[in-house]
Give the backbone structure.
Amino acid sequence: MQKLLGLMRRCIDDYDMISPGDKIAVGVSGGKDSLVLLVLLAELRKFFNKPYEVQAVTIDMGLGMDYSGVAALCKQLDVPYTIINTQIAPIIFDHRKEKNPCSMCAKMRRGALNQAILDLGCNKVALGHHYDDAVETFMMSLLYEGRISCFQPVTDLDRTGVIQIRPMLYIHEKTVDNFATRQSLPIVHNRCPVDKTTKREEIKQLIFSLSATYPDLKERIFGAMQRYPLAAWEPHGRYKRPKEQE
């Protein structure tokens, strides 16, 4: 817990993610990443030098997933929890029969989440993207789109006035997995029909293969993103690359 909190706090400080009085919505899908983010932000608020509130929000896609375990965790953490019921999955898979559903799904989920955030009076939303997500997104943009690009650590959503933050960017996926297992977090099984068959999964496997020959591949890519730097990726603090832990 202390190790992960230290990495998260350094990321928050490096990118000025939190200001005093923020009301931060955590987008909770029920997966390990968002649940670990929720636990860490709930714990960090106890001693962080800038007081803030946490609100958990789930966009129910209409796939029949059970979030009762997440609700129990939120009660344990003393975090208010809201579930927004939608029919996003039936619209995409049953009615529209989209051949490439991920893009439309992401847009519809973002729209529902942003509206929920505004209704709850939150000014920021925290997303569970971690270190490996950033590296994979960079590689996806390069190989599939021919662009040097990635999502930003902090994004100002101009049309809504909400600010997106990604506080787990210094934490490796393996560390997230280990923490979720040790804490016995109530992970909700993803019932999406295209789960694990996406372009991101292809890139994940490519990076895994290349890392056998180039062990520091992910660290070099992540460091290049900050040193280049990509838009909004230059840290304000003195950054030290977090090494992947077993």
